[in-house]
Amino acid sequence: MACSCSHEPIAPKPNSKFRTALWIALIINLVMFIVELIGGSYAHSSALWADSLDFFGDAVNYGVSLMVLGASLYWRATVALLKGFTMALFGLIVIGKTVYAYMQGIPPEAITMGAIGILALIANVISAVILYAFREGDSNMQSVWLCSRNDAIGNVAVIFAAIGVFGTGSLIPDLCVAVIMATLGLTAGYQVIQKARKERSQNRQLEQVY
């Protein structure tokens, strides 16, 4: 009698709560991407512009995460690996934009910058609270939690930068926050990449055993 059993580790059943959380976070991030893209351009703020790119990257990450729910550990880890590289890439883009803004020397409009920063903080706190319960999951779950956490931290920094710009009339606070956000993107990307590579390796070892 032929055996119809599969020796590949069975993919977990998609978590409906995690799926719902991802959809909410996806919508929030798409809306804030548009808001900060327009606001950052209007206010000449590197920090807001950088944060808008981060919102867009997060929205893409959440969408990809929705696509691989229920897939095998190998494919979930592979997608997480790609997301880790994406997070790190955004960090490098922000650094490049910061250097360009420094060369231009145009200080941002502090009031607009601060108002949008507060709105973005509220949006990201909501996302972070929704995704908090999944922070200890696999690399795919961890990556979406780190995205949301980093955004909330970045928004607090944007608000302080707006206060600094308002008080000094200098673009330096804005640039400093942009660098902080770039560092967050690079370090979070590294964490996700490391965990995803470990999970891919573990999956290969399980396949060899079976």
Automatic annotation (TrEMBL):
**The organism's lineage?**
Bacteria, Pseudomonadati, Pseudomonadota, Gammaproteobacteria, Moraxellales
Q: Which GO terms describe its biological process?
A: zinc ion transport
Task: Give GO terms: molecular function aspect only.
Answer: monoatomic cation transmembrane transporter activity
Membrane topology (UniProt)? Multi-pass membrane protein
Tell whether Transcription regulation is among the UniProt keywords.
Answer: no
- Leader sequence segment: none
Among Gene3D superfamilies, the record links this protein to: Cation efflux protein transmembrane domain (1.20.1510.10)
* Coiled-coil residue spans: none
Q: Name one GO cellular component term.
A: membrane
What is this protein's record name? Cobalt transporter
- Pfam families annotated for this entry? Cation_efflux (PF01545)
Cation efflux protein transmembrane domain span: 22-197
Show the InterPro entries listed in the entry. Cation_efflux_TM, Cation_efflux_TMD_sf
